[in-house]
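Hi everyone, sorry if this is the wrong subforum. Our group has a chain we'd like a structural model of before ordering constructs, and none of us has done structure prediction before. Sequence below.
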Amino acid sequence: MIERIVVVDADITTERVDAIVNAANVALCGGGGVDGAIHSAAGPALLEECRTRGGCPPGSAVVTHGYGLPATWVIHAVGPVWSGGGMGEAETLRSAYHASMARAREIGAASVSFPAISCGVYRYPLPDGARIALEAVAECLAHAGAPSTVRFCCPDDAVRHAFERALAELAA
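Answer:
Right subforum, don't worry. Here is the predicted structure as tokens:
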């Protein structure tokens, strides 16, 4: 399943895939980082649809249309805010990736692009976040109907290196 995962230098808002994953907040109202960039690129209709969802708890994911984005769908996944590691953050992060992959299967997405959920504004340690992300996605790729391609969009060298290292360790 590892061969279906690709780590790329990319702006997730420009990805031409069936679905992109948004590192969302619980209110689904846009914010900083990836969330703000996706809302800005998609346009105001995205926020309007998000307001109809009633929020999304950490570890879960919901789907909306992509509106002004090249991607048809946006999967809004809420990861944990890092609080030192003793508050179930790893389990919540893993759950956010599993939920995102489940939503991708439900909408029939053949290709999905992910950011590093919780590793920016929410301060999740990048090496651990990358490892959890790749393990969770690899687990999900074994299910029938899973996307044929999963891309991890890395906005800078630090994120890309962390995901490349984690992918190499997972493949070993």
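For your construct planning: The mean pLDDT is 97. Strands lie at 5-9, 19-24, 61-65, 73-78, 111-114, 149-154.
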